[in-house]
């Protein structure tokens, strides 16, 4: 359960008094998520999400994220802007953490999306990329390709606590994937979501009602966003089997607005392999370092590691922990 920081009823009552948002009725920690502390807050007038930003979100980046959400909402995307207090501020301090009160969006996130739902999600990603064409702020990818080797080094030999031989194999895979990474001018760049997993897309039936969790949004390859989604969406949540129909539908939805160029086609699998490395590494780091008293369910680093087999079959035959 992702509640790293506990919020007292007294502190929350004082916090809410800054807003025209009613008075506190209830607040419950939200089980999903691993990055930030999230509460579902009901007041006498409405329901909100309260987010307290934890380790991976730098306070200095919050204005970028909030401006992006406002921009996307103004372009008709179903994203939840932060609520402004009576002074017009969205970013506050609560329990010594940066915190925002965020509009609650209805909908549920799916564990096993259908091809129809994946197609809608691909279209939504394309709408997001179209909407940022006139968004000027930029943000460096704090989990970008240049950060993977240092993160791997920081995990070190502890990686072998996750699987025997994992340290050596992940190091070799990292070298192979980084060597094939596209150069700066090879494919388009723009502001991307960078973490649009099924749990960050809210749906009612086949309709998308919310795109949430923009706290990794950054400037990077446009197609990397789709590759991240492909690696996150097109594998069965329990069996981990690759579901090509879901992956194809996702790509088809995206291509309805951004057809692949030849360069896109050439680089797609390499970008998806990079996504596997990025999420294997961040999950491995969390696995090794999550404090024992945190109310958080750690995510399996090996799930994304195994997905690498689909995007780079040659590596699968070389690395014992992948075969
Ligand atoms: N605006 C919103 N409206 C409705 N529910 C929301 C909203 N924001 C967050 N949630 C709920 O809270 C959960 C956790 O939020 P979020 O994904 O932002 O957390 P996180 O810790 O940053 O997660 P992640 O591990 O995906 O990075 C979501 O899965 C969703 O159920
Ligand atoms: N969506 C990520 C968490 C954010 O880095 C994961 O499932 O590992």
From TrEMBL:
Q: Pathway membership of this protein?
A: Amino-acid biosynthesis; L-threonine biosynthesis; L-threonine from L-aspartate: step 4/5
Residues spanning the signal sequence: none
Keywords from the UniProt entry: Amino-acid biosynthesis, ATP-binding, Kinase, Nucleotide-binding, Threonine biosynthesis, Transferase
Any Gene Ontology biological process: threonine biosynthetic process
- Keyword set includes Kinase: yes
Keyword Amino-acid biosynthesis attached: yes
Q: Where is the Aminoglycoside phosphotransferase domain?
A: 27-255
| The enzyme's E.C. designation | 2.7.1.39
Q: Which PANTHER family does the UniProt entry name for this protein?
A: AMINOGLYCOSIDE PHOSPHOTRANSFERASE DOMAIN-CONTAINING PROTEIN, AMINOGLYCOSIDE PHOSPHOTRANSFERASE DOMAIN-CONTAINING PROTEIN-RELATED
Family recorded in the similarity comment: Belongs to the pseudomonas-type ThrB family.
What NCBIfam families does the database record attribute to this sequence? PRK05231.1, thrB_alt
HAMAP family from the UniProt entry: Homoser_kinase_2
Descriptive protein name: Homoserine kinase
């Amino acid at each position: 359960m992702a509640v790293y920081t506990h919020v007292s009823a007294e502190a929350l009552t004082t916090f809410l008094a800054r807003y025209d948002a009613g008075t506190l009725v209830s607040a419950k920690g939200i089980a999903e998520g691993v990055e930030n502390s999230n509460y579902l807050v009901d007041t006498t007038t409405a329901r909100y999400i309260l987010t307290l930003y934890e380790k991976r979100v730098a306070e200095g980046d919050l204005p970028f994220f909030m401006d992006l959400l406002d921009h996307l909402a103004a372009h008709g995307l179903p994203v939840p802007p932060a609520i402004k207090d009576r002074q017009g501020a969205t970013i506050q301090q609560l329990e010594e953490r940066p915190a925002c009160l965020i509009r609650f969006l209805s909908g549920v996130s799916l564990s096993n999306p259908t091809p129809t739902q994946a197609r809608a999600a691909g279209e939504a990603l394309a709408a997001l990329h179209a909407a940022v064409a006139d968004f000027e702020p930029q943000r460096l990818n704090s989990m970008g390709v240049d950060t993977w080797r240092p993160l791997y080094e920081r995990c070190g030999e502890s990686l072998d606590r996750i699987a025997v031989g994992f340290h050596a194999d992940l190091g070799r895979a990292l070298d192979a994937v980084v060597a094939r990474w596209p150069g700066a001018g090879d494919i388009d760049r723009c502001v991307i979501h960078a973490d649009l997993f099924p749990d960050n897309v809210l749906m009612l039936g086949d309709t998308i009602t919310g795109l949430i969790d923009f706290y990794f949004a950054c400037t990077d390859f446009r197609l990397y966003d789709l590759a991240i989604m492909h690696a996150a969406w097109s594998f069965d949540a329990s069996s981990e089997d690759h579901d090509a129909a879901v992956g194809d539908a996702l790509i088809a939805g995206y291509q309805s607005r951004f057809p692949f160029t030849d360069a896109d086609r050439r680089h797609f699998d390499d970008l998806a392999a990079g996504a596997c490395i990025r999420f294997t590494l961040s999950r491995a780091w969390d696995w090794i370092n999550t404090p024992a008293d945190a109310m958080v369910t750690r995510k399996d680093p090996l799930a994304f590691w195994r997905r690498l087999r689909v995007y780079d079959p040659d590596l699968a035959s070389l690395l014992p922990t992948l075969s």
